[in-house]
Amino acid sequence: MPISDDPAARHAARLLTMLGEAVPDRLPGPAPGGGSALADWAASGAMALTGRPGGPPLAAPGAPASAVRGALAAFAVLSGARELPGAGLLGERAALMGLARRGPWSAGGSFRVLRTRDGWAGVTLARPDDLESVPALVEGAVVEGGEWTALAAWALGRSSAAVADRAQLLGIPAGAVPAAPGWAVDEQAEQRPGWLVSTPGGPRRHRRARPLVVDLTALWAGPLCASLLGLAGAEVIKVESPARPDGARSGAPAFYDLLHAGHASVALDLASPGGRDALLRLIGQADLVLESSRPRALRQLGIDAEEAVAAGTAWLSITAYGRTGPWAGRVGFGDDVAAAAGLVARDADVVMPCGDALADPLTGVHAAVAAAAALRRERACLLDVSMREVTALAALGPAEPHTVRRRSPGGWEVETADGVFPVLPPRARRAARPAAPLGADTAGTLARWGGP
Q1: Which of 3, 85, 91, 398 could cysteine-pair with 9, CB 3.0–4.6 Å?
Q2: pLDDT band at residue 302, thresholds of 50, 70 and 90?
Q3: Among 314, 392, 358, which Cα is nearest to 94's?
């Protein structure tokens, strides 16, 4: 795709330049719609997930689908991968879970944007602990009519920042929606220079033609990064605790298979000295480690990313708001982090989520670009990826002028200055094979890679 004609190509060029890589004259991939961000959005499946159930699908601010397509093009340049998905990966989870748009709720049903005294704040109640914490969150207000009813009434009397701050104090994922898409003005944004912070380490001790990736991540963003690295030829070892396996295992099996097919599965009891020692040996063998825990959690297990990087292992960390700054300990899921970045849709006077947990797939593909660049370096580095800042990058600017209307005989289409484009439903690739059962490869993997 010519760089000047396509928002995805321009995004890819920006990523490559930021990483200090050469930008080719043409980048891999087509330019659907003559280079329209809304054409990408309509084709991705995410637009069909945005809006009210009975109303039209809505445009997103910025160019999130083009950002995905551009990041995948940059990844192809850096990794040499030929068979990669497209922007349709934004809708894959929804397709495999049978989700549809249900604004003002998220497609998954556990997130909503609430009106506050001075704007909007997004809150996720996805876990039992989140629901149990609502009475404490609303400071003694009577929880009648359900948790969301009480929460909505409570939020009206507080600022967006206060809603997010108190929710985070209780471990509930939440974020204030910025006034302008992609332009958060808060103490964390002031201290973060961008979506990626890279800290150099020691000379890399392994530079294999087929990199070994140890994947400690869970859910969507990190596993998507690992999946893309696997498609580019890396050997991926998925490490989980048998007591607390990846929560995505309890979701749609086809989605878990899609992200983990072909990866070895290792189960280690990290509460035991033997399990921790085995993990440390795997880390010592890895070309790259992926993790998505808050820094304190791994340090409590005696695992220190900075020490591993100093010893020559590349390390990529994905967190909601980054490893550094006053919000380094905050929690976040895909929908509330997207809201905190301003990636929300507006329908009349209501703010609602875009797509399905968009911060997750956006972060996954951008993390893969950073990982591919790190694997080309002679020195190890600690890559600190902030989900909020990745999403903000994709949300910058308003949607281009457009009209959404019904098609004949059915469905929807969006018209822009570049043409008329059908709004496609979410769809998903088929996994090449089922993912390995939990711990299926523990013995063989430790025998091969777990030595001193």
Answers
A1: 3
A2: confident
A3: 358
Q: Copy the structure tokens of residue 432.
A: 């090449």
| Together in a domain, 117 and 178 | yes
Could you tell me where the beta strands, DSSP code E, fall in 336-417?
Answer: 344-347, 350-353, 379-386, 403-406, 412-416
Find the mean pLDDT for residues 212-233. 98
Q: How far apart are the first and last CA of the chain?
A: 47
Q: How confident is the model at residue 27 (pLDDT cuts 50, 70, 90)?
A: confident
184 with 213, same domain?
Answer: no
Tokens of 203: 């000379």
Residue partners of 299: CB distance under 8 A and separation at least 6: none
Q: Are residues 157 and 218 in the same domain?
A: no
Q: Are residues 174 and 194 in the same domain?
A: no
Sole residue written with tokens 């899609």: 258
- For residues 228, 231, 232 and 238, what is the CA-based torsion angle, rounded to 10 degrees? 70
Q: What is the spatial distance between Cα 345 and Cα 142, in angstroms, rounded to a whole number?
A: 31
Residues 208, 315, single domain; the answer is: yes
Do residues 195 and 315 share a domain?
yes
222 in Cβ contact with 230 (< 8 Å): no
Burial 253-289 (b: 16+ CB within 10 A, else e): ebbbbbbbbebbbbbbebeeeebbebbbebbbbbbbb
Q: What is the pLDDT of residues 105-123, one digit of tens each?
A: 999 999 999 999 999 999 9
Domain count, the chain: 2
Helical H runs in 175-269?
187-191, 221-231, 253-260
Under 8 Å between Cβ of 91 and 45: yes
- 145, 173, 188: which is the final residue of a domain? 188
Asked if the structure places residue 314 within a domain, the reply is yes
Q: Per-residue pLDDT tens for 171-216?
A: 999 999 999 888 888 999 999 889 999 999 999 999 999 999 999 9
Full residue range of the structural domain in which residue 159 is found:
111-188
Say how far apart CA 366 and CA 373 lie, in whole Å.
11
Length of the chain: 452
For residues 177 and 266, state if they share a domain: no
- State the DSSP string of 137-152: HTTT----S-HHHHHH
